[in-house]
Amino acid sequence: MKAAILNANNGRFDIEQVTIDTPKGHEVLVDVKAAGLCHSDLHLAEANYGTPLPAVLGHELAGIVKALGPDVTEFAVGDHVVGSLVQFCGHCFPCLDGRTYQCDHPEETMRPVEDGQRLTRDADGKPVYTGWGTAAFAEMALVHQNQLVKVPKEVPFPQASLLGCSVITGAGAAINTAHVRPGDSVVVIGAGGVGLNAIAGAKLAGAAHIIAIDAQPQKEALARKFGATDFVNARDTDPLEAVRALFPAGVDHAFEIIGLVPTSEQAVAMVRKGGGAYLVGLHRPGVSMAVSGLDLIVRQVDLRGVYMGSSNIKHDIPMYADLYLQGRFNLDDLVSREVNIIEINEAYEDLKHGAVARTVITFF
To answer: Residue 364 above 80 pLDDT?
Structure first.
């Protein structure tokens, strides 16, 4: 089958032929119908985060169940499913406490060495690592049942694929991590796919004021469509001054989606006394930021790192799918473009420029 393989951390994917094994244990074979191009995959392609190479990345996955391992209990052939990079064992203390995103043994979702490889390259027969446990940049994927969620067949595949990461990460940061309440004030720095969902989540939670900040002025219309009440063009205006002009004492919650030190520091500075700054964007390995401990203490700022929107995928993904079908959660406007897998490198170049919300591979 065709797959996009990362052979080096040079930001480029090579389209090659690979062989996928039959499902074993709790694995599910999924016919991939849509795979979203998330910025996290680009980060892993451009820098060494420790991912073994060669690898097939891709974690925003939607498709149809084609075959089941003998130990699978949740799914049937023909089910429509969404995959997520949240890997959890289901029996450790965080999992039993409902915090599956903090699982102590995520490695249990990967195939044991004695069971062989999920993917091998046709050209040389060498193993290919299944990135995130999903390896969605391919025609088919072998995924542990804990990383899959059944969704209604009425949800289109491109929209469904985004439920697995950008939706739960963005909306979850507002709803699960920050616990945004009706009347709260919110800043979202970065109005890409995850940022738009943070805006949508804040709106769903009842925030009265949602300020979107982005360096692309054309994002304003889209941000407002998802629920932003104000927009700051970071290219022409100092974001901190703009926020302080609207809220002199600071906002209740600030979400940094980009993964950069300057914008992370801005998020801390934007919140009021007792407010919360949430780092959602993935920072590069080895990067650190300066934080004044005294400032945090005096202003009583809650500074938190957010992983996958603190989401329990088995609960949250069906919830957002249901809200979408009710017309209460916008997924349609997240899909900016559908492409063939052979266009993956060009599509990621477009993503670097920040002009799109989400590009989705729907042709293989």
So the answer is: yes
Integer Cα distance of 265 and 291 in angstroms: 8
Of 75, 90, 70, 66, nearest in space to 142 by CA: 66
Q: How far apart are CA 178 and CA 181, in angstroms?
A: 9
pTM: 0.95
> What whole-number distance in Å separates Cα of residue 176 and Cα of residue 307?
11
Kindly state the helix (H) or strand (E) to which residue 334 belongs, with its residue range. none
pLDDT, average across residues 356-361: 90
Task: Decide: helix, strand or coil at residue 83.
Answer: strand
**Cα(313)–Cα(176) distance, integer angstroms:** 12
The letter for the amino acid at 144 is H
Beta-carbon count within 10 A of 278 CB: 26
How many Cβ atoms are within 10 Å of 206's Cβ, its own excluded? 11
Burial of 314: CB neighbours in 10 Å, binned 0-12, 13-18, 19+: middle
pLDDT value at 356 more than 80: no
192 pLDDT above the threshold of 70: yes
Contact 194, 215 (CB under 8 A): no
Q: How confident is the model at residue 353 (pLDDT cuts 50, 70, 90)?
A: confident
Cβ atoms 138, 56 nearer than 8 A: yes
- State the Cα–Cα distance between residues 229 and 184, nearest whole angstrom: 12
Q: Which domains does the chain have, with CATH numbers?
A: 2-164+310-363 (3.90.180.10), 167-308 (3.40.50.720)
**pLDDT at residue 351, as a whole number:** 84
Measured distance CA(162)–CA(34) in Å, rounded: 9
Q: Is the pLDDT of residue 190 over 90?
A: yes
